[in-house]
From TrEMBL:
Heme c 2 binds at residues 143, 146-147, 189. GO terms for cellular component: periplasmic space. Residues 212-241 are annotated as: Disordered. It comes from Salinisphaera orenii YIM 95161. Keywords: Heme, Iron, Metal-binding, Signal. This is Cytochrome C. InterPro entries: Cyt_c-like_dom, Cyt_c-like_dom_sf, Cytochrome_c4-like, Cytochrome_c_Oxidase_Subunit. The keyword Metal-binding applies. Residues 122-212 form the Cytochrome c domain.
Length: 241
């Protein structure tokens, strides 16, 4: 019931989202945030912390790097990612406006939900190994080498991994494994997940979901070291200036 209501709200507000343009998105003379009003279709579904549903999870988008959010919107527009509601909402929006949306949510940092319970010892140890050190024998780099030492993401295009539910992380890693989620080439996550077995996916998801949220949840300005592999992304409109 709740999921249906949220989807109907989003579809009902889609017209207001679709007709907006970067020039009209913010009205500094009105004293209010016109952009926030136009994006009620987004906040109705995603809320501030994400929304847990009986059969899934609508992820948190607040505070993630603008470049990452922009890439996901483009991925939905180009059908590299498939979700009927998202594909519909962004289908006719300009790239400039998609970037306006991304910047709007990137600038907002509400509190995170509480972490999940710590998994059993064996699962936790394997999860921490993969996140912190990777598995050189399997050619799996550490999650932290790209997503940041605090796992809060890295500017401009890498998302944070803290505050996400276990089942959602498993679902996204699984989507890359079976080819239902894609990113711009080179799709490094597709390469990495192909080297993980089901137990590894579970271990990473369980450990990340139980990770306490750090005091500083801002994405890092740069990775701690040179990323271990190239990952594709769609240049933001500002990058083309």
């Amino acid at each position: 019931m709740f999921a249906t209501r949220v989807i109907l709200i989003a579809i009902g507000l889609a017209a207001g989202l679709a007709i907006a343009t970067p020039a009209s998105a913010r009205d500094s003379t009105s004293g209010g945030d016109a952009m926030a009003q136009r994006l009620e279709a987004c906040t109705a579904c995603h809320a501030e912390e994400g929304i847990r549903l009986e059969d899934g999870y609508v992820p948190r988008i607040h505070g993630k790097p603008a470049g990452y959010l922009y890439n996901q919107l483009v991925n939905y527009q180009t059908l590299r990612r498939r979700n009927a509601t998202m594909n519909h909402l962004v289908s006719h929006l300009s790239r400039d406006y998609l970037y306006e949306i991304a910047r709007h949510f990137a600038e907002r940092h509400p509190p995170y939900p509480a972490a999940a319970e710590r998994p059993g010892r064996a699962l936790a140890e394997r999860g921490e190994q993969l996140v912190r050190e990777g598995d050189p024998q399997a050619e799996v780099p550490a999650c932290a080498s790209c997503h940041g030492e605090r796992l809060t993401g890295v500017q401009p295009n890498t998302p944070g991994l803290v505050g996400l539910p276990r089942q959602y992380i498993m679902a996204q890693l699984g989507a890359w494994q079976v080819g239902t989620r894609h990113a711009a080439a080179p799709d490094c996550m597709a390469e990495i997940t192909a080297r993980l077995d089901g137990r590894d996916v579970e271990a990473v998801a369980a450990w990340l979901a139980a990770r306490p949220v750090p005091d500083n949840t801002e994405p890092a300005d740069a990775p701690v070291a040179e990323p271990p592999m190239d990952c594709g992304s769609v240049p933001a409109p500002d990058d083309n200036a």
